[in-house]
Amino acid sequence: MDTDVLRRAPLFASLDDEAFSALTEEITEVDLSRGSALFYEGDPGDQLYFIISGKIKLGRTASDGRENLVAIMGPGEIFGEMALFDPSPRSTSATAVSETRLAGLKHENLRKVITRSPEVSAQLLQALARRLRRTNENLADLVFSDVPGRVAKALLDLADRFGRPATDGILVAHELTQEELAQLVGASRETVNKALAEFVQRGWIRLEARAVVILDLQRLKQRSR
Amino acid sequence: MDTDVLRRAPLFASLDDEAFSALTEEITEVDLSRGSALFYEGDPGDQLYFIISGKIKLGRTASDGRENLVAIMGPGEIFGEMALFDPSPRSTSATAVSETRLAGLKHENLRKVITRSPEVSAQLLQALARRLRRTNENLADLVFSDVPGRVAKALLDLADRFGRPATDGILVAHELTQEELAQLVGASRETVNKALAEFVQRGWIRLEARAVVILDLQRLKQRSR
DNA sequence: GACGGTCTGTGATCAGCGTAACGCACGGTC
DNA sequence: GACCGTGCGTTACGCTGATCACAGACCGTC
Question: Which residues form the signal peptide (chains A, B) (predicted)?
């Protein structure tokens, strides 16, 4: 498989060639089509995944079937590493949002590398610290902001990570249905739809199939606070 | 200062005496009375803290002054370590909930220890992973559960961490005002008060000054789901 | 072109919970 | 004892957003 992409990941940047090839020797490549699940909440897990291309949603399901998305992960990002340090079953499920290619690494192999290379643990610590920061922020938003505010915030976040400049604004090909967007911001599909409709009507965004174009970044930012 | 308590902390358990004494040489002892702040959101921070006794609340303040508590930390726990890996200003404020004694360690000193001892980074990774798991859970609860459910959950969590058996149940001396409890579960003081009153009326709990006694653990658990 | 799935758009209803506005109990200070 | 600050208990009211219930749009498949 193509290890070049992995080589360029910050997590492995500090490794010497020997350690890197030892690590990548036992890599599994996984391809997923939209909607297919990689693992479920409660599964045992001994792998972590690096996203080569595509997007993965991490979510939790309540006993009554309602779902809540914890994060959307994109190319170059890593997930499923928590069980490495805290050996418990998967705390979320992972499902492909679009055609997705992953590289799976056994925890065991990474653990060996960690003991030898403090730089790798530093990278992992940083990644976890950032995730924790983000999650705390989301928690606060859920308390402080109303649904339109959270939708605005989510769009801005997605734009930041997946946006590309277009002729009349920023194209955000998030690949999410409105239902998924609703699960991400912790609201009902209907309310999210109404919020989006309002933004469109104000000329802040334009809707496309599983994508939005942000036309007025400033206004949207104001609404998100 | 008394380094025995620190010695017993899992984070430092793996250190040899030399490394440990190097680390503790530059320790600062901090005493706080209820309500006094250790640091604020946005402050630069180059220390992490170990709680010797007492409790600390970590919170965020919205622009309009409303507050939201991210966590209550108790004896033996560590906080303020995130800036170690992800050098940004403090993402929360830290305030004493009761008389509290802390040991402050400079990030710089801990960083030195980390590079030498992979066990310490493993401990830190585990602590962060657990925190992230907990926070994700709280996030889901905020979406899925109503206020009484969240209050029940918070009480159970506090009981788990600070509860002591009493004659007629579990005494949870959480030291929080109802206002603070409300900020912790993301609700208004009034609604939390109503929820508590209902639990009392059903005979599930008994209220005391900044404490509760859990009388019917089973029912409370059921309500929390 | 007819059918069935999935997704989007929108209105009507209803309840959970925030807000506002009280009164009361307690403890500390002069 | 008089005073004040802080925390608790409880009410009435209104609004945000979930739920329900559709209708249309856009697929792919037969």
Answer: none
B chain contacts of residue A129, beta-carbon cutoff 8 Å: 82, 84-86, 128
Q: pTM of the entire structure?
A: 0.87
Strand D nucleotides with an atom less than 7 Å from a protein beta carbon: 6-12, 16-21, 27
pLDDT at site B51: 92
Q: Cβ distance A80 to A45 under 8 Å?
A: yes
Query: Is residue B139 a contact partner of residue A135, using CB atoms and an 8 Å limit?
Result: yes
What sign for the dihedral angle of Cα A49, A55, A58, A63? Answer: negative
Which residues contact residue A168 at a Cβ distance below 8 angstroms, ignoring those fewer than 6 apart?
A206, A213, A215
pLDDT in tens, A19-78: 777 777 788 889 988 888 999 999 998 899 999 999 999 999 988 888 999 999 999 899
What is the distance in angstroms measured between the alpha-carbon CA of A178 and the sugar C1' of C10?
A: 15
CB within 7 A of strand C (chain B, 185-204): 186-188, 190-191
- Distance CA(A168)–CA(A157), nearest Å, equals 19
- Which residue is it, tokens 């924790």? A132
Distance, in Å, from the CA atom of B38 to the CA atom of B30, rounded to the nearest integer, reads 9
Put simply, the answer to whether A140 touches B68 (Cβ < 8 Å) is: yes
Question: If DSSP states are collapsed to H, E and C, what string results for chain B?
Answer: CCCHHHHHCHHHHCCCHHHHHHHHCCCEEEEECCCCEEECCCCCCCEEEEEEECCEEEEEECCCCCEEEEEEECCCCEECCHHHHCCCCCCCEEEECCCEEEEEEEHHHHHHHHHHCHHHHHHHHHHHHHHHHHHHHHHHHHHHCCHHHHHHHHHHHHHHHHEEEECCEEEECCCCCHHHHHHHHCCCHHHHHHHHHHHHHCCCEEEECCEEEECCHHHHHHHHC
* CA separation, residue B172 to residues B55, B137, B154 (Å): 13, 22, 11
d(CA B41, CA A148): 25
> Over pLDDT 70: what percentage of chain A?
99
- The per-residue pLDDT for range B59-106, each reduced to its tens digit, is 999 888 889 999 999 998 999 988 888 778 999 999 999 889 998 988
CB proximity B130 to A under 8 Å: yes
CB of B156 under 7 A from strand C? no
